[in-house]
């Protein structure tokens, strides 16, 4: 691990540790605004302070969960060189950044918002509240793979499946639990640390390192690229001839309108044409599937996406 990698690891750890103060500061601002209200207005919202106290308790519970994740992270994720053993160094003499915590790293509110995203992802992937979203997006992919690869034709453990952009690992776990040889791939340390915890602390899993795959499963993933065409190249190159690519999700394009970031943003019709020109065969297509992502079922604000579900096949012999 070089110095730049170590610095990134340690900053990520510091961001996790900033969560509690950051979240409590947001609640504190709401309480200060409440204090400025007239007594007549306060009388109209008699439960406000009680609800604030419940939110504070939820923040405390979330922080205990985060501490548990960090305490049970092991050296394997860092190839046996574990920077988490230096966790006391992450919050020490330094400037107080946007997040309101004194650290030796420059941490912004946007950094700590990533922890909120991780917590929401936990709800989606590993709680009963996320079951509806998992049924919307993961279940069609898992069912399709089970239909394509029958245990009567081939031993399931010999079927190699890659899940890029695996996040907290639920889709990869579902496929491994079904008997397939599955590997999740994820680049974000904000996801890798908690994914390592959830997959290795309560469960025992096996990590498979493969270079070619019988199947690639992508869920809410292909629009995360700066250049989506590079994803097509990679998926084509790692699939065995006759292998399948199964995709579910929208085209949101994560880097759209971000200053300093390139983003090739294709309409679905153009993307499908590019996939065809690459050489993939379209086996199945379903359009306008309504799906949500990390939504609070109790919130009045919900975002819904019109998703596509595709099954593509790499021909046994390339046709062009």
Automatic annotation (TrEMBL):
Q: Main EC class of this protein? A: transferase
List GO molecular-function terms, semicolon-separated.
Answer: carnosine N-methyltransferase activity
Source organism's superkingdom?
A: Eukaryota
EC no.?
Answer: 2.1.1.22
| SMART domains linked | N2227 (SM01296)
Please provide, in alphabetical order, the Gene Ontology terms of the cellular component aspect for this entry. Answer: cytosol; nucleus
Q: Which key words are in the record?
A: Methyltransferase, S-adenosyl-L-methionine, Transferase
Its name, as the record gives it, is carnosine N-methyltransferase
